[in-house]
Amino acid sequence: MSTQAPDRADLLVLGGGPAGLAAAWKAAQRGLRVVLLERADHVGGMSASFEVDGVRVDLGSHRLHPNTAPAVLADIRGLLGEDLQTRPRNGRLRLGETWIGFPLKVGEMLRALPRGMAAGIARDVLASPLRQPDADTYEALLRAGLGPTVYDAMYGPFASKLWGLPGERIHGDQARVRAATDTPGTVAARLLRGGRTGGGTEQGRSFLYPRRGFGQIVEAVAEAARLAGAQLRLGAEVTRLDARTDGVTAYLPDGSAVAARRCFSTIPVTALARLSGRGPFEGPVLHFRAMTLVYLSHAGGRWTPYDAHYLPQEGTPLTRVSEPANYRDSTDDPADRSVICAEIPCMVGDDTWTMPEDRLVRLVRHTLSDTGLPPVSCRAVHVVRLPSVYPVFDLDYAGAMASMRSLVAGIPSTVSFGRLGLFAHDNSHHAMAEAYEAVDALGPDGSFDEHAWHEALRRFAGHRAED
């Protein structure tokens, strides 16, 4: 229990990622007294950037989606100016023993792939209007939408690596979020006219990316929030949240506390339930998939001309290898070296999570060699372990999510949103849009328009599918 009088605020924000920072900024612009608490010593969450051997890198591969909500995009452009660059997509994907451009283009696939696989894809495209899913699972929906050949070569193995489950044990919501526009009719039409899979034409051609790394976005939002009057406290881990109908109080390990009329939480929904004393939680539980990131600094200039290499196939635990300097055009990037980032999904405490650095480097080197990628002339190594990266939509998740949302909805004076707060596959622009809507629902007297917020939640679900 705190022995100090708590600091007072109108709005308490938990978490300093894109959602929390955007909420703090917009609320401070409205004249509210805002205190944001972030347990890390830096802002940004998974959208942060940092340096490895003098090269700015991200926490995995990040891009700003061209379909970002206009208000959010206008604000980001206003903060970054010419530093927000429009960049062409230039990735590659490993199918079988062949590298092909990604996003996929049917003409290239049919020319480059082994004859048997190409013939299977062609048959699947022609038969796609006749296929219907026989279950509400990731596998059933994507087999019907994309065809058995592409599913077995890419989406099925990728699911096992990314979420740790075979496709038949993943809920259909996962397919609806990841490939909602890939229905039998739309996939067939798009492929037959030579289009790309994975969504709209603008998404297929380009993306937006800051000159100083993806983290430049959250750094700019954080500075804008400070200038607007928000107080951002880093290294501030909340140990308990006392939530009442007349306000909330967050307690910190040093005995200090922050009291506010309302709390916006962007931390994992499971952590919010624990901090507020809700539970114990019974029945199916929600799981996040972790990630181990291995950064290798490469001597001799750029490693490859590609921004990312995708590895969906079985046989290696890596899912993607990206080269951050190829996402941007920046004179700040040194000419004599580059950095690659290898992504390895895992679970907290498993063999990958606990693997020592030297073994992780050997694993990455072995994967590069086996997949025909160039070797790395290694100057330096850096490893980052992220505990809560991807929400796992297993077959029990819907019931667990409904129970958790009901539990969290019962926490007085508190609203949970953002990627972790909604247990959703949200990108940074989704999280910022949610923050804008949450602040819009705040009344000048500290009230919160629940109806407007629930309408916004329904829109968010639709926008995720469209992206």
Characterise the protein shown here.
There is one protein chain. The chain is an alpha/beta fold. It is built from 17 helices and 18 strands. It has helices spanning 18-29, 70-80, 106-112, 115-127, 138-146, 148-163, 172-178, 184-192, 201-205, 215-227, 269-275, 351-354, 357-370, 397-409, 418-421, 428-440, 450-466, and strands at residues 7-14, 34-38, 49-52, 55-58, 84-88, 91-95, 98-102, 206-210, 231-234, 240-244, 247-251, 257-265, 287-299, 308-310, 320-322, 337-346, 378-392, 414-416. The strands form 4 sheets. Strands 1, 2, 9, 10, 11, 12 and 18 form a 7-stranded mixed sheet that branches. It has a 7-stranded mixed sheet with strand order 7-6-14-15-16-13-17. Helix 1 runs parallel beside helix 10 (215-227) and helix 11 (269-275) packs across helix 14 (397-409). The longest helix is centred in the C-terminal third of the chain and has 17 residues, at 450-466. The radius of gyration is 23 Å and the shape is globular.
Task: Present the secondary structure layout.
Elements: E1 7-14, H1 18-29, E2 34-38, E3 49-52, E4 55-58, H2 70-80, E5 84-88, E6 91-95, E7 98-102, H3 106-112, H4 115-127, H5 138-146, H6 148-163, H7 172-178, H8 184-192, H9 201-205, E8 206-210, H10 215-227, E9 231-234, E10 240-244, E11 247-251, E12 257-265, H11 269-275, E13 287-299, E14 308-310, E15 320-322, E16 337-346, H12 351-354, H13 357-370, E17 378-392, H14 397-409, E18 414-416, H15 418-421, H16 428-440, H17 450-466
Parallel strand pairs: 1-2, 1-12, 2-9, 6-14, 12-18
Antiparallel strand pairs: 3-4, 5-8, 6-7, 10-11, 11-12, 13-16, 13-17, 14-15, 15-16
Helix pairs in contact: 1-10, 1-16, 3-4, 5-6, 5-7, 11-14, 16-17
